[in-house]
Design a protein that fits this description.
This protein has about 500 residues and is of the alpha/beta class. It is built from 20 helices and 8 strands. Helix content is about 45%, strand content about 5%. Strands 1, 2, 5, 6, 7 and 8 form a 6-stranded parallel beta sheet that branches. Helix 11 runs antiparallel to helix 12. The structure holds flavin-adenine dinucleotide.
């Protein structure tokens, strides 16, 4: 735990904006998606004997409140989880005497003003792999009239120059994994400094406060009681989940077997919401898997959690490599597919009303809780892009709105992959939804959990309610998949003839 040097309350602090001690440097640490104290890259940039610190977090309305299609970029669950996370960070920093300034606005406007008002010498931040984030960083470099310390994007592996590394990233995940496992070490988590020097500020300085979800006109609905977990934002809750799932519950040893589940809190780690906002460090998670292996057991499951973190690393590097092309309809693989803009189909998909229970249950879970299993995400993404033929980017945007673990690289990378326009662009892949239902929800318990109207049907009949007099699904699963296959093959054929 960080111990602040200055225990005085703010009002007791000297009414001045420059530090009385000569040789001190006044730092503004801009927290973005590393909302934690442990394994904190920003602290690495500090000279503990010299650097005074104040922190800032900026809610950028363009990222959260802008409306795309007919919904805001962040929905209520995502915003609630984010604001809880920032509140926890504010508390943790404050316990070490460091204050968090909270602002709403464009970081490239807000931060230069803050630097001026607080007589800052140096602005520090961690670069993000996203393209919008990168353009903000560039504007900031032009506008801020202070020294800037920008740290490279966070990585799980020891990679000194992630941008340079990403230039040669293989297009196929397994090649990356093999190269990384052979040639790269996992980076150790960073030590937590024993103290930080708080920056002295005017007693009248307005630090702002973390807003409530309601301030943005969104309902602060509690998560649905049927959700897999009562997700609470913030570093302490993330660290608790790590300890509880891995050690107290001892679930890691079975992870590879259970990870395709959809029902309940323990089939997978559920670390993603905390990892996505940086409230839980992936480096720490990887280290804890090794500790588990030393103290308990090492098997395929204990390795597999690290394997999934490698996927996350891959998609972050993939976004660094491909930039804006990841957000285009043809994706990084430049696949000339035609996508439909059929709003009726999209609405049926997002509201869980396609008539196919496994799709509808997953989509209702997403909307009600802000979370969906990895199995569910793969199925619904494939269904929208393949069976319904709807522009996959609409689905990615809906996920962006809903998911409490939304992360640009993981979301858009996985969506492009599912649509067949991203990484591993080999051959047509689509799910036979009937087979998937038999395999992953044989007794229909999951679909009945989210679609109570199916509870009257027994077992596998829950997956075909139309056979028991219910409405027919909006598309025939087998026929629509066949149409998608032909669309994909003709796009592939076009590519072959026009290399
Ligand atoms: C269409 C689609 C969209 C997705 N969008 C996101 C997203 O916005 N944010 C996000 O974190 N994950 C996303 N994923 C990946 C994955 O579904 C979630 O990370 C996982 O379901 C989270 O649950 P968990 O923490 O229990 O995962 P676990 O199975 O316990 O995995 C452990 C951790 O590994 C990482 N991880 C696992 N699978 C993947 C993957 N395929 N890609 C990247 N990282 C992975 C996550 O950080 C996760 O917390 C998406 C997957 C698909 C198919």
């Amino acid at each position: 735990m960080i111990v602040g040097e200055d225990d005085r309350s703010l009002d007791d602090r000297p009414d001045e904006v420059t530090s009385p001690a000569s040789g001190r440097r006044r730092n503004l640490l801009w927290f973005r998606r590393e909302l934690r104290i442990h394994d904190q890259p920003l602290f690495e940039a500090l000279d503990p004997g010299r650097d005074e610190v104040v922190a800032a977090w900026v809610l950028d309305p363009r990222d959260h409140l802008d409306v795309v299609q007919d919904f805001s970029r962040a929905g209520n669950h995502r915003l609630r989880f984010l604001l809880e996370t920032v509140r926890a960070l504010e508390g943790a920093l404050q316990r070490s005497g460091v204050r968090l300034v909270v602002r709403i606005g464009s970081p490239e406007d807000v931060l230069p003003d803050l630097c001026r008002d607080l007589a800052i010498d140096r602005l520090c931040f961690v670069e993000a792999p996203g393209t919008e984030e990168r353009s903000i960083e560039r504007k900031l470099e032009h506008r801020a009239s202070v020294a800037i310390k920008s740290l490279p994007p966070e990585t799980l592996f020891q990679i000194d120059d992630p941008r340079g590394f990403a230039r040669d990233l293989p297009e196929v995940f397994s090649s990356f994994r093999r190269t990384a496992e052979r040639g790269l070490a996992l980076a150790p988590s960073r030590p937590t400094p024993s103290r930080l020097l708080p920056l002295a500020t005017h007693a009248s300085f307005d630090f702002g406060s973390v807003p409530e979800v309601g301030a943005f006109g969104l309902d602060d609905e509690p998560s649905d009681p049927r959700a897999v977990l009562g997700f609470e934002g913030g570093e302490p809750a993330g660290l608790d989940r790590l300890r509880d799932w891995m050690f107290s519950g001892d679930h890691l040893k079975d992870y590879k077997v259970t990870r395709n589940g959809m029902l309940g809190g323990e089939y997978s780690s559920k670390f993603s919401p905390w990892i996505a906002l940086g409230a839980l460090s992936p480096r720490l998670v990887a280290e804890e898997t090794f500790r588990y292996e030393r103290e308990r057991v090492a098997n395929d499951s204990t390795y597999w959690l690290r394997f999934e973190l490698f996927w996350r690393e891959y998609f972050r590097l993939y976004l660094l490599k491909h930039g804006r092309t990841l957000f285009r309809a043809a994706g990084p693989s430049a696949m000339p597919m035609t996508w439909s803009g059929n709003e009726r189909r999209f609405d049926a998909w997002r509201s869980g009303a396609t008539g196919i229970p496994l799709i509808d249950a997953n989509m209702r879970e997403l909307r009600a809780s802000g979370y969906m299993s990895n199995r569910g995400r793969q199925l619904v993404a494939s269904f929208l892009a393949k069976n319904l033929g709807v522009d996959w980017r609409w689905g990615a945007r809906w996920f962006e709105h809903c998911l409490i673990d939304y992360c640009p690289a993981a979301n858009w990378g996985n969506w492009a992959y599912a649509a067949g326009v991203g990484a591993d662009p080999r051959g047509f892949r689509g799910f036979d939804i009937v087979k998937q239902a038999r395999r992953y929800d044989a007794d229909g318990a999951y679909v009945a959990h989210w679609l109570p109207e199916l509870q009257e049907l027994s077992g596998s009949k829950r997956h075909a309610p139309w056979l028991a007099g219910g409405p027919a699904p909006i598309v025939d699963p087998a026929r629509s998949l066949e149409v998608a296959r032909r669309r994909w093959e003709s796009a592939e054929d076009f590519c072959r003839r026009n290399p």
